[in-house]
Prior knowledge:
Structural class: alpha+beta
Amino acid sequence: MLHIQKLFFVTVLLVNYGNAFSQNLSFDKHPPIKDYGLKNYQSYSRSIPYTSKTAWQLVCQMPYNCHFQPWIEIENAEGKIILLNSSNPLVQYLTKTESFVAKKGRQIYEAKNWISGEGAVYTIPAGATVISVKYRETGYDTKFVGSFECNDNDYNILWKKGARTAYLCMRDWFYDCPDRERVGFWGDGTPELNQCFYVFDTNAHKLCKELVLRPLDAKFYPGQQLEFLGPYGLWYYYLQTGDINSIKTVYPGTKKFLFNTYKFGKKNQWFDWGKENKDNAIIEQCFMYIDLGTLKKMAKITEHLSDTILINAKMDSIKNSFNTRFWNGSFYKSDQVIEPDDRANAMAVNAGLAEQNKWPVIFENVLNKKTFSSCFFDRWVFEALCTMGKENEALLRMSTRYQTMIPASFSTLWEHYDRWWASSIDAFDEGSSLNHGWNPPVINLSQTIAGISPIEAGWKKFQVIPREGFLQSIKLVVPSIKGNITVAINKTLHQYSLKLNVPANTQSIVGIPKTAFKNLKTIRANDRIIWNQQSIKNIKGVSYYGQDEHAILFTVSAGNWRFLGEGLLDLSTPKKAVKNIPKSIALDKKNWIATASVKDSLFLFSGDNIPIGVPAANAIDGDHWTGWRDMTHKQYPGQWVMVDMKQKQSFEKIELDNSWALWDSPKKYAVSISNDGLNWSKPIATGTGNLGITTIVFPKQVARYIRVTQNGTDSLYYWSIYELSVFSNK
């Protein structure tokens, strides 16, 4: 969460809060860590065994971002130093590059400390022979049980990357990220706790309990704790687990924090990164209001009923003054900001402080136009849009704001949208993490879009009320403590099918969305008509519950059910279809040579000026965390990178991946080919680079050499290629 420039402060937090957290772990101070054993890498930058007359680097790829320890078998290296590290440069903020001095003969060495990333880098001295390399994966001992799949692959990718990100940020406690800090912020912990209940088995609940029981601290970003102490944290945990003992334990501290500790209007409360224009005056009023509502529920179940008088009085004081203080006729805004904030207006809706008759103008003037929130806070904007019945707009906002993360080769979700520092510094943030646990797509898709969540503590009663918008099919599994809940939704022009299993000893409220239909005629349950426009009929296990503006609702007992709505559905979609690019095969780059128009160099990375090498060879080493950069000047005409494929090959596509240095895309590019590296063709393709990944498609070519030339200018950003890949359709 915190920026690299605050690393000293983060280090202090790691020491102080790390000790406090470890003393409070609910699993006897030793979190359950699983050893997945030694594994083979997915790919290597060199064919091994391999040796060289000069020092060299071996770059190896894992199938996904994970916690790992590099392992190597080496010989002919007596007395020489071998270095082992992650290809993720942020790792160097917490973990120094590990090294060992080789012994005589053949030796096996495994790194002592775990690191994180999607690739490992071994620095090998001249003359040494690498026999084999592996990695040992470790991680929090929980299984991926939940799943989500729909007909639009953008959201499938986001859910899977979100789940992987959540797992990567679990270990001793909920990390904000595993590479740069590993601090247990409440802000990051809130969505991470939420995701656990839709992705992992019950082992993950132990880590959730640690966060619930952790003592509150007014000096440690109290705004984050305010975000946690309500329906998104404490009550969320209780509904999922039914753990009333933990609620009893934290009730006194929660009450004290809300009534005495928290002070409105103080600086450094922290509610969101995001862009400036944070309307904290409104945001904190909204969170306080909903937290007090949760505190009232807690008081009732923990035998503190008399406290509800004071709680009601404080809630009334907020509600009665809210519109007078902040409503201007078209949106909510305090004097703190120049223009209305999407975060503040979304929370007014979520808290129930914005009456329904205000929703249309809030949508038109703010939520449909403003994007000040970060990927952390967008969760609440998404939920507010769905509450308003704007599911399509919520889904479009998600896919648009994640537009650079969806196609990226990284298996996790990033700290900032588009790697853009969206706070006081308005620029690319090279030090932001690429695996940040606060991303909400898992929650948004499983809980809000699929509409599955507990109503009574411990999943005794839960709801399945989809808000699928323009999605036409959804399949998902939710790992509740009562057993896995599976739901399958499928829409055709005349039928809305919803299949689900309701576990034993539970009950469900199921909703068939009226909003999905132009004309809804009948609803069937297991092939029997239970509703039509003239009558309602209860059958064994299913009874009519009522209806609202969104859905017709039924109470359903345990068992397997298929609901079928019949009529005329609206299958239109406002989302543009993804272009179909023919499948192609990436050519093997292991023996290729890359050169560039400038000498190999390095750059000083972020606040600590860590030297990171960016030689041309990095552009073809198979790792998208390592890359080539021209550090001599910002983009200027005539820069080039050339690859020698060692033999003539046929190809139809080139991909320039600079997702790590996202804004270093070429302003103008031209691709030429050659068979001798001296005589070059006219450009076979020209164009403008895209943010992140630039895909260049052209008629089939046959050549040995490829040269990409950058012909544009940019006063802000360098030109980078973090991975250059060549593809053939053969």
